[in-house]
Design a protein that fits this description.
The complex is a heterodimer of chains A (about 120) and B (about 110).
Chain A lengths: L4 E3 L2 E4 L5 E6 L6 E7 L6 E7 L2 E4 L8 E4 L6 E5 L8 E8 L10 E2 L3 E5 L1
Chain B lengths: L3 E4 L2 E5 L4 E7 L3 E9 L5 E7 L2 E5 L2 E6 L4 E6 L8 E9 L6 E2 L3 E6 L1
Parallel strand pairs in B: 2-11
Antiparallel strand pairs in B: 1-3, 3-8, 4-5, 4-9, 6-7, 7-8, 9-10, 9-11
Classes of the chains: A mainly beta (about 120), B mainly beta (about 110).
């Protein structure tokens, strides 16, 4: 079974440019998460989707970040415009469903963003 | 103070040594997760625990719910075990992972 797929794996852009990341979760997983991970830190949740609905976007900086999950499968995360401090690894994860029972989340390889 | 604390932050061991990584948390949980992250790689789930002990190969994870503490043990460590090991908890009644900052392990040949 294929795991969570993310692209691109690496992205280098200049500040003020837009950037987009793509995630394809494991087939059948209803819940999708986007995380940001700074060097030496644990991941921080940006947004969680249940199917196509964003059920928790409280940590998403909405002035520059946006996300969508059309049709409740693939998802894109966009930053416009990017700032130097956005340099980080952006991780996508998925799980079967949100039952509040500590389900295992399956992580993609991440997109490493460098903003110059 | 972080809700999930790991120790040590960094650990260097010789091949073959027995390794212990500790995780303490301060909230009620429905599950605790041990994750592994290789440099430049994604995160792999090793264990999900809600009580007792689990073993997979050379890895053993234990949890003491009353003491809010978990340990990850690696027996007969090998250089390929070198990675960051992350403890994460799911607070009771939620979906979330609250992550520790990780323990960076380096096993020398």
């Amino acid at each position: 079974e294929a795991g969570v797929v993310q692209s691109p794996r690496y992205k280098i852009i200049e500040k003020k440019q837009p950037v987009a990341f793509w995630c394809n979760p494991i087939s059948g997983h209803n819940t999708l998460y986007w995380y940001l991970q700074n060097l030496g830190q644990g991941p921080e949740l940006l947004i969680r989707y249940e199917n196509e609905e964003a059920v928790d976007d409280s940590q998403l900086p909405k002035d520059r970040f946006s996300a969508e999950r059309l049709k409740g499968v693939d998802s894109t995360l966009k930053i416009q415009p990017a700032e130097l401090g956005d340099s980080a690894v952006y991780l996508c994860a998925s799980s079967l469903g949100d039952l509040g029972r500590g389900e295992t989340q399956y992580f993609g390889p991440g997109t490493r963003l460098l903003v110059l | 103070k972080n809700e999930v604390e790991q120790s040590p932050q960094n650990l260097t061991a010789q091949e073959g040594e027995f390794i212990t990584i500790n995780c303490s948390y301060s909230v009620g949980i429905s599950a605790l997760h041990w994750l592994q992250q290789h440099p430049g790689g994604g995160i792999v789930s090793l264990f999900m625990l809600s009580s007792g002990k689990k073993k997979h190969g050379r890895l053993i994870a234990t949890i003491n719910i009353q003491e809010k503490h978990s340990s990850l043990h690696i027996t007969a460590s090998h250089p390929r075990d070198s990675a960051v090991y992350i403890c994460a908890v799911t607070p009771s009644g939620t979906y979330k992972y609250i992550f520790g900052t990780g323990t960076r392990l380096k096993v020398l040949a």
